[in-house]
Design a protein that fits this description.
Elements (H helix, E strand, L loop, with lengths): L2 H16 L11 H4 L6 E8 L6 H11 L5 H13 L6 H7 L14 E6 L3 E7 L7 H10 L2 E7 L4 H5 L2 H12 L4 E7 L8 H17 L8 E5 L19 H7 L12 E10 L5 E6 L5 E2 H5 L4 E3 L7 E5 L9 E2 L4 E6 L11 E4 L8 E8 L6 E2 L2 E7 L2 E15 L2 E6 L1 E2 L4 E7 L18 E6 L2 E11 L11
The protein binds guanosine-5'-diphosphate and magnesium ion (MG).
Keywords: GTP-binding, Nucleotide-binding
Family: Belongs to the TRAFAC class translation factor GTPase superfamily. Classic translation factor GTPase family. EF-Tu/EF-1A subfamily.
Pfam family, one: GTP_EFTU
């Protein structure tokens, strides 16, 4: 790299560092994040086109909160220099972050956590490439809040508001995310032009509201500069509120009822360095308490495996906790199970324990081959589960206020009540009415989203041996 470029990158890092808080500026280290268990724990999904500045903004947030050391930033600067990628030192913080529980490269979903005054956030940074949409879907089902990052740079907005971004928004809303913050980033490149901000806001609004993905009262537009850290923590002069102001004031709690039966879709299964078997996931419903697992009343469905729980840890696997509730990410150390447990299984307690190969879902068809006939095969995504082959075996259309007789095919834009079979393996899913996050589904094929919808009912496996308790 030329000396001048290298110098510019170093100057940039120095400029970034001037915004870092002083050591005693009320910054909380990771260890005490989890101790503040009265705070709500929300998950935000960053999405938007590649290059719009998602990773940079997440890196900047961590830096502003003191969760990244000067050494770490300098290490990332060295990496950016080596890769000849100017301006990437902040993005590298999240892009290179190796989360304890996501060591598996395949996840490709950046993950970090931080807290502000009144709440704790887990950040998922969705990859902006179409081949990685399945990974993005995994983040969408976990998210309480969507953050769409769009570049204000001349030409970039026009170029980048692609069909992929539209698919991200579609999927996020299909997985029940109601609130969206649109960060119009790189405002420094347009000299914080109000006219440019309003132009982008207007164009995006008409798309978002016309398609009915989000209600206007649930969408907030904010101008920011991720690279310079402007309007992220502190309100920039000329703007009304910063990103942190909005996050603090937002009327939002994690979905899921803490007193309902316990459900935790398993995101990851692995053996840690001490040889413990660990299941990792996000609690969607109910509360897991220490005394519960002493009574052995947890079951991993559909395997019907009763895990022997050794310990319960919070998000980073380092702090043992007594209990966890909706929104919390937990690592549960268990005695080696009898069955091979895979991601997509559900740790459950209470209610009817689900084990099924067929269910009925209300679907909205977004994109179909010209006509979609009974017998259509697709890939099913539901909570943390990915099933490579499911079949639509029967369809009914909604006409004159009710689901009428069988239909042979449906077209794009139509709704249908579908009977779906998963021939190969049992799965564990739930009715939308009882456990919303375990009943929202997406069907995809050949790299595009065919339909989104909700599980209305499922057929219990006749041979299920576990009773609910
Ligand atoms: N000028 C300017 N550049 C930015 C800003 N935010 C990000 N960038 C640059 O945009 C490029 C892409 O950023 P990155 O965070 O990797 O985008 P991602 O693909 O959406 O994660 C990098 O070169 C960043 O330095 C910003 O606020 N202003
Ligand atoms: Mg990125």
């Amino acid at each position: 790299m030329e000396d001048s470029k290298k110098r510019r990158l170093e100057e940039e890092t120095d400029a970034i560092l001037t915004k870092r808080p002083k050591a005693d500026a009320g910054v909380h280290c990771e260890a005490d994040v989890r101790m503040l268990d009265t705070r709500s724990h929300l998950t935000m999904l960053f999405m938007g086109p590649s290059g719009s500045g998602k990773s940079t903004i997440v890196g900047q947030i961590l830096l502003l909160l003191g969760l990244v050391s000067i050494e770490e930033l300098q290490e990332n600067e060295a990496l950016a220099i080596a890769d000849d990628r100017q301006g990437r030192q902040l993005a590298y913080i999240i892009d290179n972050k190796e989360d304890d529980h996501r060591l598996n490269d395949e996840m490709q979903l950046g993950n970090a956590s931080f807290e502000i005054k009144s709440r704790t956030f887990t950040v998922l940074d969705a990859p902006g490439q179409s081949r990685l949409v399945p990974k993005m879907i995994k983040g969408a089902y976990e998210a309480d809040l969507g953050i769409l990052v769009i570049s204000a740079s001349d030409g970039e907005f026009e170029q980048c508001f692609s069909s992929l971004t539209q698919e991200h928004l579609q999927l996020t809303s299909a997985f029940g995310v109601e609130k969206l913050i649109v960060l119009i980033n790189k405002m420094d490149t347009v000299l914080w032009s109000t006219a440019r901000f309003e132009e982008i806001e207007e164009k995006l609004s008409s798309f978002l509201f016309l398609k009915n993905y989000f209600h206007s009262e649930n969408v907030t537009f904010l101008p920011v500069s991720g690279l310079h850290g402007d309007n992220i923590e502190m309100c920039r002069s000329g703007t009304v509120r910063s990103l942190f102001d909005v996050l603090e004031a937002m009327d939002l709690v994690p979905r899921g009822d803490a007193s309902a039966p316990f459900r935790m879709p398993i995101i990851q299964v692995y053996t840690n360095e001490d040889g413990n078997h660990v299941i990792y996931g996000r609690v969607c419903s109910g509360t897991i308490k220490k005394h519960d697992y002493k009574h052995d009343n947890l079951v991993i469905m559909p395997y019907q495996e009763r895990p022997k729980v050794v310990a319960l840890y919070c998000i980073k696997g380092k702090i043992e906790v007594d209990q966890a509730g909706p929104g919390d990410y937990v690592s549960i150390h268990i005695v080696p199970p009898h069955n091979d447990i895979h991601p997509g299984a559900v740790l459950s307690s209470g209610g009817a324990l689900s084990r099924t190969k067929s269910f009925t879902a209300e679907l909205r068809f977004l994109k179909t081959p010209a006509r979609m006939y009974n017998g259509f095969n697709a890939m099913l995504h539901i909570h943390s589960l990915e099933v490579h082959n499911c079949e639509i075996v029967e369809m009914k259309k909604f006409t004159n206020g009710s689901w009428s007789g069988r239909r042979r095919f449906v077209k794009e834009g139509e709704f249908a009540l579908c009977r779906i079979e998963v021939p190969e393996n049992y799965i564990s899913i739930e009715e939308i009415a009882n456990f919303p996050q375990l009943g929202e589904l997406v069907l995809r094929t050949e790299g595009y989203t065919v339909a989104v919808g909700n599980v209305i009912s499922w057929d219990q496996d006749e041979d299920v041996v576990m009773a609910g308790f």
